[in-house]
Amino acid sequence: MAELHLKSYRFRAEREDDWRRLETLLTKVGKGSAKALSDEELLALPVLYRQALSSLSVARATSLDQGLVDYLESLSTRAYFLVYGTRSNFVERLGGFFGHAWPDAAKALWRETLASFLLTLVGVLAAYFLTLHDPDWFSAFVPGDLAGGRGPTASVEAMRATLYDHGEHKGLSVFAAFLFTHNSGVAIFAFALGFAFCLPTSMLMAYNGAMLGAFLAAFGMKGLGFEAGGWLAIHGVTEISAVILAGAAGLRIGWTLAFPGDLSRPAAMAQAGRQAATLMGGVVVMLFCAGILEGVGRQVIQNDFARYGIGLATLVAWPAYLYLPRRRSVVR
Amino acid sequence: MKAARKTSKAGAAMAIPDPAAGDDRRARSLVTPEGVDLKLRLGDAGERAAALLIDLLIMLAALIAFALLAALAMIGSKGKGWEVIGTVAVLVFFVLRNLYFVLFELTPGAATPGKRAMGLRVAARNGGRLTADAIFARNAMREIELYLPISFLAVQGDQVGAWISLAGLTWCAVFMLFPLFNRDRLRVGDLVAGTWVVKAPTRKLAPDLVETSRPSVGRFRFTMAQLDAYGVKELHVLEDVLRRYETKTIALVAARIRLKIGWSAAPDESDGDFLAAYYAALRGRLESRLLLGKRRKDKFDKG
User: Fold this and answer.
1) Which long-range contacts (CB under 8 A, 24 or more apart) does A71-76 make?
2) Which one, of A219, A217, A191, A218, lies nearest residue A204 by Cα?
3) pLDDT tens-place string over residues B141-169
4) Is A181 on the interface with B (CB under 8 A)?
């Protein structure tokens, strides 16, 4: 007899089918993707979700069946994440990234980019003049395994030989893949290190510049400055810009952690982190291009002027793409 | 409409411990745009560590499987395919290290296999969409939380090198142990990305206990005084006992309740039937009072 008086029992019996239907849809999506649902099911999803939510509200207020309330909480939460989760398709998101998200992030981080650039420049200049003044500095800036026989003590011919490739084009794709993954790893590392209040990232930027400066000085002393410039320019413009942008992303995080501004610290961090991460996505793309230019392009193209030409083209193209103002797309 | 939705989401951004949950320190309120509080629970440190361990093991297994495949391919092509195999190997390693977490968290479940196994998922702290840049940010931070400490551990060298890596490890410990020192169990990556890790268990709808007790209920008649002996808290404990249905506990609880309400058992009365009937009657009584606006918290609540 008692169950006839229980409104919560009747409440459940009347709505259970809808809940089960929502659960089936959720399980379907969990196994495959949102594409697993037919049009009809997709349309039913928000309706069923709202029904579950209202059931949850009613159950909390009127039912003392703990098992039922727990179930509805779990069901509503799962449905909430599906209904309000990301469901735009991959191509659309990619278009949004290249169309505006990446350039916008680059523009928003211009101060950090400038700081990162200046730090690199300081590193280059300091190492360049120190090495010119006293060649012993070279080994202080460039680790032995990276120098690969280059240095102030090597002969001019040996140095020239490192700049050009002599017809052995084997394993270029491995080389390019290695360069891409290695540089991306370093860039992500520079980004993550920014969390420690900018300091490690700043040092990394200056040190990166110092290696570059020491290399240039070593070649400059032998009168190979022009050739070394071409060897570097073809991929270096892209690669060094990418590293500078990665440093900028790291600096933004560390700076926001120290000085969150008007927002609360967690809110400011979240905003800065997402913007910086968008820029980092772009950095990985740039490093991919740099990897191909360095791993393949530089080995195939042996002419200094062609090398300079490509370097110059990238020097114009990247800033133009990232910083030139563009028409706002219609806000959907 | 859009603005209204935004404010309601911003309202959910606050990490207010839910007052109703009381002693549950991991409960957080997430108010949906429809205005219902979903009462999320955060994943605790142990679960998250276990999830990470599972993921690392999966990555290791994938690496070993790929190495075996590559070796087979090398033998199969008699060493001629080294360029392709080498390129693929470098890229596979990169994808595993940097994109394993990102790609899995981009799926609708927003969880890596390890998290899924532990019933966890990633969610945006403000209750809004979990965007791709947030997922990238939270996982790029693993570089200093996870990979840097591992590389310090792997360093071999003389005594000076050992001291340096010890100092490095101590420094990294600040990032590694970060989740233990904040209320929301955020790791550095969660802080940077504005995310947190919440429980998203999949519960089955258990049968209503009132329904299962139907046949025997009619034999029991309780007086109002007998039904006023307990409150909601005791009802939920009783529900738990009935759902588990361990014979020993059932007998113990039945004896306890009989004593409390002064019920003299009929000779053929089973403990289980008695409890089921009392549960149904008590729930009916408490729910009807609930409809009149009185939620009797527990047996000490004399409202």
Assistant:
1) A71/A19, A71/B203, A71/B204, A71/B205, A71/B206, A72/A19, A73/B38, A73/B39, A74/B200, A74/B201, A74/B202, A74/B203, A75/A19, A75/A22, A75/A23, A75/A26, A75/B203, A76/A49, A76/A52, A76/B32, A76/B36, A76/B38
2) A191
3) 998 899 888 888 877 667 777 888 888 88
4) yes
Per-residue model confidence as pLDDT tens digits over B55-110: 999 999 999 999 999 999 988 888 777 888 888 888 899 999 889 999 999 888 88
Provide the chain B residues 154-173 that lie in CB contact (below 8 A) with chain A.
none
Question: What does pLDDT average to over chain A?
Answer: 86
Closest CA to A299 of A149, A175, A160: A175
**A70 interaction partners in chain B (CB closer than 8 Å):** 203
Helix (H) or strand (E) holding A272: helix A265-292
Cα A245 from chain centre: 10
CB contacts under 8 A, A 232-291 vs B, are 253, 266-267, 269-278, 280-281
Helices vs strands, H then E, count in chain A: 16, 0
Instruction: Give me the pLDDT at residue A168, please.
Output: 57
Interface predicted TM-score of the whole assembly (ipTM), two decimals = 0.88
Nearest Cα residue to A239 out of A198, A196, A194, A297: A297
Could you tell me the two tokens for A110? 């211009």
User: Distance between CA atoms of A210 and A127, rounded to whole angstroms?
Assistant: 5
Residue B179 tokens read as 């989740």
**Residue-level pLDDT at B128:** 82
Contact between A67 and B239 using a beta-carbon 8 Å cutoff:
yes
**A2 and A9 Cβ atoms separated by less than 8 Å:** no
8 A C-beta contact, residue A29 and residue A36: yes
In the numeric block, which tokens belong to residue A29? 């999506």
Kindly state the greatest CA–CA separation across chain B.
Answer: 89
Instruction: Identify the residue whose tokens are 């990619």.
Output: A94
Provide the token pair at A248. 């900028």
Q: Is A154 helix (H, G, I), strand (E, B) or coil?
A: coil
**Residue B4: Cβ-neighbour burial (10 angstroms; 0-12, 13-18, 19+):** exposed
A3 vs B contacts (CB less than 8 Å): 210-211, 214, 217, 280
CB contacts of B188 in chain A (<8 Å) are 195
For residue B298, give both structure tokens: 């527990």
Q: What is the CA radius of gyration of chain B?
A: 28
Q: Which positions in chain B touch A16 (Cβ < 8 Å)? A: 205
Residues of B whose CB is below 8 A from A34: 108
What span, in angstroms and rounded, lies between the C-alpha atoms of A45 and B172? 45
CA distance A50 to chain B (A): 8
- Identify residue B260 by its one-letter amino acid code: K
Token pair, residue B166, equals 């010890």
CB contacts under 8 A, A 223-242 vs B, are none
Q: For residues B197 and B130, what is the distance between their CA atoms, to the nearest angstrom?
A: 12
CB-CB contact of A229 with A310 (8 Å) = no
